[in-house]
Write the structure tokens for this entry.
Amino acid sequence: MKHKDGKYHSQPDKGVKIVPATLLVFVLCGFSFYLGGIFCSEKNKLEDKTVHDVSKDVPSTKEPAANPLQIKSIAFPECSIDYQDYTPCTDPNRWRQYGLHRLTFLERHCPPVFERKECLVPPPDGYKPPIRWPKSRDECWYRNVPYDWINKQKSNQNWLRKQGEKFLFPGGGTMFPRGVGAYVDLMQDLIPEMRDGTVRTAIDTGCGVASWGGDLLDRGILTISLAPRDNHEAQVQFALERGIPAILGVISTQRLPFPSNSFDMAHCSRCLIPWTEFGGIYLLEVHRILRPGGFWVLSGPPVNYENRWRGWNTTVEEQKSDYEKLQDLLTSMCFKLYAKKDDIAVWQKSSDNSCYDQIADPDAYPAKCDDSLEPDSAWYTPLRPCVVVPGPQLKKSALESLPKWPERLQVAPERISDVPGGSASALKHDDSKWQVRAKHYKKLLPGIGTDEIRNVMDMNTVYGGFATALIDDPFWVMNVVSSYAANTLPVVYDRGLIGTYHDWCEPFSTYPRTYDLLNLDGLFTAESHRCDVKYVLLEMDRILRPKGYALIRESSYFVDAIATIAEGLRWGCHIEDTEYGVQKSEKILVCQKKLWYSSNSNSS
């Protein structure tokens, strides 16, 4: 061995130490064996003790405990009448806690668990069951959405008008005073693809009362109307009260909860989004969610500035500069001006990936996004000032490559191969399964397929099978994919359906009383290890309309516990067998929310 002095010294004789070392090894092994026996014995005692405390046991999602989960009955109190329009994650009472920069305060900011409400949100005084579709598109009960501000501020633009006990929706808007029908007619002249089934899914940013999305329903185009909870009070609530798909949201600092390359069209009608500010980061998000070949439609400033600038409290030079900046920014993102007439301009996102070679230069702006962030990552994911370039494998996902609607619904999308275990045969199997289930569900709930049910949510869809099986019924479905589940939402959009990412450990981005039917398929089995069953059911109660329904297909382990909580929510429930008859492993809970009024209300 070489020591610090650099000299080598002879080793001492190791033979003398062999016997003591061997003995030491045997002693340590015996001692560890003794300790292990004690530990295992105590562990078994602990397991025997906890098996009997079912209410505290967290079951495996793969092998539920044999004995059903039992919990104590609970009666939830009423929330104050002040909570009649409570939106937990976009609560105006919490806005002051968050910044004004880029309207961050309007984004989702959910309360911590210790601040979550364990009470039932009451309806407004005088609430009535909503007017049924399609009449609801043109009118709704004033007492269901009793907001005078929007009526006073927007009645001159024909957004809506209060008349007696109702709000009427003439179909007007800031940029379409002659009515939304004439506005969309002009748009279809500019975009013929809106007429032949090519364009099927759309998003309307800053949607007002969703008249644009409502008009498109008759033209075979399914639109998500997006608006924040802002000083207009209830844009999204008005939309859903009318029976038009909508969700609370804002393009601010986080990505919208949608996958990349999904919408066929995006629309902004004087939505007041500063598209060219902050490096064009808001427009970059529109680029991300718009599929190759998709259209972006803008009406309002700075389009048609030559004739409109006097009414915008600006100068013609400023508006010309804004339009040129917008055009340059869109060109840098591989958009091309497709058509323009009067107040409407249309750009199309390129389907040719060679266009993106121009941003390969490190000095280019906006630059190409690197591979550190998934294009579909969209749950609390920060916006980034870079271009999400569609992958070369998405050739068949470009708008012109997709089958036209309704053929598109039945064709296995290219992106199903990105889902673990996904394939054309897996999609066919899922569709067949839901066809059988849908027939059974209609027997359990005869209101399905009638005008009694309009706004529907599939709370944990896979490929949109529930919506596909009932596609001919007079309702629309918001397909929700868990942010923790396999990413199947791109497949849902490629089929011509709509949906969103969500985590059911948190409240959903909607107003109270906005859905007629909630469909669940093993949600609690999949999520109970993360999410408190009680809070999920409280959220379901918040978003269900009075007299609305929940179809809860669940492991028998959870059914009794869910029924107990539902009783505390004032729901009426009954347990039914599945379409396969009597099964011990799985049951269907059919529930209906009752109409009740706050004890402080004048209604009875």
About this structure: Residues 18-51 form the longest helix (34 residues). The mean pLDDT is 88. The radius of gyration is 29 Å. The longest strand covers residues 544-555.
